[in-house]
Design goal:
Belongs to the binding-protein-dependent transport system permease family. HisMQ subfamily. The longest helix is centred in the first third of the chain and has 33 residues. This protein has nine helices and no strands. It has 236 residues and is mainly alpha-helical.
Length: 236
């Protein structure tokens, strides 16, 4: 028991500070990716509902690609392929090479995947809102943005929240993939500790516990948010 506590101690004698910093990186990456994925997912859902067939086709192609590709492959394409393309363009323009950090690459890649799934959630939520409500808003003289902001969006958020909570839980787990491109998240820090100390069961077990704690905390927060969003809604 003392050996375990010494390995998990905070400071030079143990790995507690490194693992705690990995938790911070995992949470930071998840929170940074969330608004990117939500915003892009909402735009994709709006594009799928647009009257322009080219816009609908483009949105459907995007979601088909990033829902079908493995998340790890998407991460490699962004981190290695995207960096190569950008530097080729910069080189042609006479600009210095640009290095994409593993954090930014992870945020972009996971955000693209998240947005593809979130767009389907938003699309289903749009379909759950009666069309007559928007028509009522137009009859009152409200412009399109006011109808969306005051009538459609509050209901859209309530209907989409359960599905988006599943997307968030998947995002939280997918952050472990960024360890392969050098980001010092939970999995990378525990992997290093397991290799150096030759205690894989201890440190990988700790990684499992940490991800489960983050999942339970997120679940509790989402449940509270769902209760808040459903306030005033009559039970059926």
């Amino acid at each position: 028991m003392n050996d375990v506590l010494s390995l998990l101690a905070y400071g030079d004698a143990g790995w507690g500070d490194e693992i705690l910093s990995g938790v911070g990186i995992t949470v930071s990456l998840s929170l940074a990716t969330l608004p990117l994925g939500l915003g892009l997912g909402l735009l994709l859902a709006l594009a799928k509902r647009a009257e322009d067939p080219a816009l609908r086709l483009s949105a459907n192609i995007y979601t088909t690609i990033f829902r079908g590709l493995p998340e790890l492959l998407t991460l490699f394409l962004v981190y290695y392929g995207g960096q190569s393309l950008i530097n080729s363009a910069f080189g042609a323009a006479g600009l210095p090479a640009l290095t994409i950090s593993s954090f930014i690459a992870g945020m972009i890649a996971l955000g693209m995947v998240f947005s593809a799934f979130a767009s389907e959630v938003f699309l289903s939520a749009f379909q759950a809102i009666p069309a007559g409500q928007a028509e009522a808003g137009r009859s009152l003289g409200l412009h399109r943005f006011a109808i969306f902001y005051k009538i459609t969006f509050p209901q859209l958020a309530r209907h989409a929240l359960p599905g988006l909570s599943n997307c968030w839980q998947n995002l939280l787990k997918d952050t472990a993939l960024v360890s392969v491109i050098g980001l010092a998240d939970i999995l990378r820090q525990t992997s290093i500790a397991a290799r150096v100390t030759r205690e894989p069961f201890l440190f990988f077990g700790l990684a499992c516990v940490l991800f489960l704690i983050l999942t339970f905390v997120s679940g509790a927060g989402i449940a509270r948010l769902e209760r808040w969003s459903n306030r005033g809604v009559m039970a059926r």
